[in-house]
């Protein structure tokens, strides 16, 4: 995981609509940057829906939410539409941001060692620095946890 207090690595990737999105586009606002393994899986759906349910409170606090996984733009679009997700989903199939934020790690899946995204959430301040970092977050609790942090 990246250290609190360092400048958050910038990136430019496609969102669920196929538009280029850069982290630097959100300078001047708090950013909740969360990395998750896969669209439409139980834990990832709980996490995304938690952020969606609390979205008005995040907006009231001046924060934006960016969800990142290695899923395709088309997968993200289906995920967004199925659950009416009101925030940006970023497609990172080449692992650009995923590796920059040190969330591509060895995991244990059913007794086998595999590489994958470790569910991680960063709070980035208005100047673009990492204010908080949470590794191995609990999907169902992440939105409420982050509301308490901002």
Notes on the protein architecture:
The chain is of the alpha+beta class and 150 residues long. It is 28% helix and 31% strand. It has helices at 42-53, 55-60, 73-83, 96-100, 142-149, and strands at residues 12-15, 20-22, 30-35, 63-69, 88-91, 104-109, 112-117, 120-124, 130-135. Strands 2-1-5-4-3-8-9 form a seven-stranded mixed sheet. The protein has a two-stranded antiparallel sheet with strand order 6-7. Helix 3 links the parallel strand 4 (63-69) and strand 5 (88-91). The protein starts with 11 loop residues before the first strand and ends with a helix. The mean pLDDT is 95.
Reconstruct the topology from this structure.
Elements: E1 12-15, E2 20-22, E3 30-35, H1 42-53, H2 55-60, E4 63-69, H3 73-83, E5 88-91, H4 96-100, E6 104-109, E7 112-117, E8 120-124, E9 130-135, H5 142-149
Parallel strand pairs: 3-4, 4-5
Antiparallel strand pairs: 1-2, 1-5, 3-8, 6-7, 8-9
Please, what is the average pLDDT?
Answer: 95
Number of helices: 5
If strands are numbered along the chain, what order do they take across the biggest sheet? 2-1-5-4-3-8-9
Our estimate of the beta-strand percent is 25-35%
**From the helix content, strand content and strand pairing, which structural class follows?**
alpha+beta
Largest sheet composition:
7 strands, mixed
User: What is the helix fraction of residues, given as a range?
Assistant: 25-40%
Number of strands: 9
The coarse silhouette is globular
Low-pLDDT segments: none
Query: Rg from C-alpha positions?
Result: 14 Å
> How do the helices and strands follow one another from N- to C-terminus?
EEEHHEHEHEEEEH
Distance between the termini: 20 Å
